[in-house]
Fold this sequence. Notes:
Largest sheet: 10 strands, mixed
Oligomer: single chain
Number of strands: 16
Structural class: alpha+beta
Mean pLDDT: 82
Shape: globular
Strand content: 25-35%
Low-confidence stretches: 1-21
Order of helices and strands: HEHEHEHEHHEEEHHEEEEHEEEEE
Helix content: 25-40%
Radius of gyration: 20 Å
Amino acid sequence: xxxxxxxxxxxxxxxxxxxxxxxxxxxxxxxxxxxxxxxxxxxxxxxxxxxxxxxxxxxxxxxxxxxxxxxxxxxxxxxxxxxxxxxxxxxxxxxxxxxxxxxxxxxxxxxxxxxxxxxxxxxxxxxxxxxxxxxxxxxxxxxxxxxxxxxxxxxxxxxxxxxxxxxxxxxxxxxxxxxxxxxxxxxxxxxxxxxxxxxxxxxxxxxxxxxxxxxxxxxxxxxxxxxxxxxxxxxxxxxxxxxxxxxxxxxxxxxxxxxxxxxxxxxxxxxxxxxxxxxxxxxxxxxxxxxxxxxxxxxxxxxxxxxxxxxxxxxxxxxxxx
Length: 322
């Protein structure tokens, strides 16, 4: 039995989803118990908070709290069932797993931001605390957003290579360790990035030109960052474009200054920051493979790196009016 059959008012007389009145869904929630902000709550507290909020809104909900190594299988099972909404609770890696399994289907993805960075959740303006996030999702609406890919592997926010990759490497190595161990190491990583001068020798093909570039860092985003005081927020998630930001700065310190200006909306006027926009990019390198951080998750890819946008390929829960 589908969620719509459980809640008849979820569809109109023609069997299509109705925009009039609240939707009633069959919701399946998978929580990564080792996610950063989930560690301060007991499993019983998590299950109670999530179940109460969705039930109060009239949805049928089932909640499963699992260990990190069980997330993939739990999400895969849910994605092949008769649910309307898959909600995943965890960091960006868990969110990416959920997106990969429901992308291209009629199921919507809901995000409970329980990780460290929570990139996609910030773009969707989902509150950080568990209670507020669940209340947000239980009253949200499904809307379609774009998905970025590189060599067929998806990313929802960005794909990064170069100097700033050190931060993702450090986070991966320090994940799960106490804060007293992580914080000093983060400062060492930051110092390493600021002093970095190692450049990438790449050729970028945007479909019109082939640009030979010596880059300190490259970030490809699924749609571009707002050019306002936005703290790297993307308010437009379905424009059907990729944006590539290429840093040609001499050192990580110069890049840091450029990022600082970008944080307050001063994107323009830096000749060492190249911005390219398109629906496809190819990046060629002398090296046979490259490490990338896709939404913070470290992955190794053969070159050339072929980036593409898949327009409106994923349904996500977001606030009304988005």
